[in-house]
Structure formats: C-alpha cells, structure tokens
Amino acid sequence: MWARLKNWARLLRRDATALWLAARDPRVPFSVKALAALVAAYALSPIDLIPDFIPVLGYLDEVILLPIAIAGLSRLIDPAIMAEHRATAETLATRPVSFAGAAMIAGIWTLVAVALSAMLWKAFQN
C-alpha cells in the first residue's frame, strides 16, 4: 500500500511539473496556461495556504483538490503536448534540488503574507 501511495505522489509531482512546463508552452491556449501556472505553482510550493496541522482541512488540498485540479487541467492540454512535458518532467526529477529556488518561493509567500496583513490591518483600523 505504501509503495502505491509513494508512486501516486511521485506521479502527481511529475504532472504538476509537466503543468508548469505546459504553462510556458506557446502551443497551449492562454486560459489553460494561466490556470496551469497557478495550480503548478501551488502544487510545487513548499508553503500551503491551508497548513497541514489543521485537522482534516490541512490535507484536503493535497489529497483531494490538487489531484482533481491537476487531472482536469491535464485533460485540457493536447495529449501529445502533455506526454512531451511529462517526459521532460521525469528527467527534471533526477536533478538536484535547488535551495535557492525554495528560498525564493518562501520569500515570495512571505511578501504576499506581509502585504495581505498590511491590507487587513489598514481595513480594521478604519
């Protein structure tokens, strides 16, 4: 059972990477590109909008919503294009992890959180 779950998670990560690649492909329609970029960025981000320590809801996005979004968007992209990007994503999975990239993503999420906090602070001050 653990082997199946581990394989499923690996395929989900591969498809998220393939969506990221498809979002940069000129053969993919713009509306699909925009959605693919958002879903892939969320899937590949080390920070969740709903933290995992919140019971049930914490894992709801990773276990249910994210796979549905990835599968749905994969079907909107031409199968030949998606197969090409899946193959590229497989080769990218063997590359070393970039800690600079992870730090950049964490920095972006921090800036977004600070900006939202400032906006909420101003809203409640008035």
UniProtKB/TrEMBL annotation:
InterPro entries: DUF1232 (IPR010652). Keywords: Membrane, Transmembrane, Transmembrane helix. The chain crosses the membrane at residues 57-77, 97-121. It is a multi-pass membrane protein. Residues 32-67 form the DUF1232 domain. It is found in: Endomembrane system. Its main location: membrane. The keyword Transmembrane applies. This is YkvA family protein. It comes from Flaviflagellibacter deserti.
